[in-house]
């Protein structure tokens, strides 16, 4: 794999989750400032999504670094099994999606928020399923 392919791959597995997460947080601002909505559900949904994306970025970053610096392998080995980590984050993404469905659609700004959460959790589910099958 050449440098160009590696950069495209890294952009896909880091750039897209960060971009979708940024969009979700941006859409959450409209839900947070609206009255008559369940902010707790929206916040919990976004927190689970952020946790899953953060764990992905850390996990995959350590895996990439371990290819160049073998000392990082000891840090990676201290963590949980990649399959266990993937299954736990798949569950977190599903719960995040389900929580976003309970935010009432009648309040201004919730529909774009739910779309952003749906896109983000869908992509993160694909990423974690990729991680589950790759190891």
Commentary on this structure:
The chain has 135 residues and is mainly alpha-helical. It has one domain. The chain has 5 helices and no strands. The protein starts with a helix and ends with a helix.
Please sum up the structure shown.
With 135 residues, the chain is mainly α. It has helices at residues 3-33, 39-68, 72-78, 82-101, 110-134. The protein contains five helices and no strands.
Q: What is the count of DSSP helices, taking H or I runs of 4+ residues?
A: 5
What would you call the structural class? mainly alpha
**Could you estimate the helical fraction of the residues in percent?**
over 70%
Query: What is the terminal-to-terminal distance?
Result: 18 Å
Shape: elongated
Average predicted confidence as pLDDT? 87
Record field, number of beta strands:
0
The main pleated sheet reads as: none
Radius of gyration: 17 Å
- How many structurally independent domains? 1
Order of helices and strands: HHHHH
Strand % is: under 5%
Q: Which regions contain 5 or more consecutive residues with pLDDT less than 50?
A: none
């Amino acid at each position: 794999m050449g440098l160009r392919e590696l950069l495209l791959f890294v952009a896909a597995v880091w750039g897209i989750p960060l971009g979708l997460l940024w969009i979700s947080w941006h859409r959450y601002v409209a839900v947070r400032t609206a009255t008559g909505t369940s902010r707790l559900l929206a916040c919990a949904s976004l927190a689970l999504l952020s946790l899953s994306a953060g764990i992905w970025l850390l996990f995959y970053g350590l895996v990439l670094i371990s290819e160049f610096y073998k000392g990082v392998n000891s840090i990676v080995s201290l963590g949980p099994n990649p399959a266990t980590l993937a299954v736990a984050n798949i569950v977190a993404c599903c719960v995040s999606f389900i929580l976003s469905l309970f935010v009432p659609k009648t309040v201004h700004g919730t529909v774009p928020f739910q779309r952003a959460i749906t896109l983000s959790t869908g992509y993160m589910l694909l990423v974690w399923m990729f991680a589950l099958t790759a190891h």
